[in-house]
Amino acid sequence: MGPKRHTDIFWRVEKQRETQALEGVERGDDCSEIGTVTLISGGQMHQLNLIGGMIWNLCDGQHSIEEISSELALEFEADSEELIDDVRGFVSDLQARGWIDDE
Fold first, then answer.
1. Taking the model in full, what pTM does it have?
2. Which domains does the chain possess?
3. Of 6, 34, 7, 38, which is closest to residue 21 (Cα–Cα)?
4. Are 6 and 102 in contact (CB under 8 A)?
5. Residue 62 class from Cβ within 10 Å (0-12 exposed, 13-18 middle, 19+ buried)?
6. How far is the C-alpha of 98 from the C-alpha of 92, rounded, in Å?
7. Which residue, 92, 30, 7, is CA-closest to 55?
8. Could you give the 3-state DSSP secondary structure of residue 95?
9. Which spans in the chain are helix H?
10. What distances in angstroms separate CA 79 from CA 22, 69, 73, one per listed residue?
11. What's the Cα-to-Cα distance from 7 to each of 19, 38, 88, rounded to whole Å?
């Protein structure tokens, strides 16, 4: 079992912005400010960037932190060991906000 999104969080993938961010990454652009996933929690709207949105999507209770890191490594041609601390930190922040359950 891995981290799992709370079912009371409404969310959607912003497909057009996700495509824009992916194309920008391929060109080598800094796309960290492009929100690709919108979350609504407690009446407030939050946006996650491309990588944050990918992590959020994989927080389905079926993927461990290690598996999430491996998925991102494949997508971005990186070493999963280099990503694991960042993924762990991001998931920890999501847990602190009450948006996902502990692993």
1. 0.91
2. 10-101 (1.10.10.1150)
3. 34
4. no
5. exposed
6. 10
7. 92
8. helix
9. 15-27, 50-58, 65-76, 80-96
10. 19, 9, 6
11. 26, 15, 21
42 falls in which pLDDT band (50, 70, 90)?
A: confident
Token pair, residue 49, equals: 């960037």
Distance of CA 7 to the CA centre of its chain: 16
Q: How far apart are the first and last CA of the chain?
A: 6
Please give the structure tokens belonging to residue 33: 């400010």
Structure tokens of 6? 């709370």
CB-CB contact of 20 with 52 (8 Å): no
pLDDT in tens, 43-77: 999 999 999 999 999 999 999 999 999 999 998 88
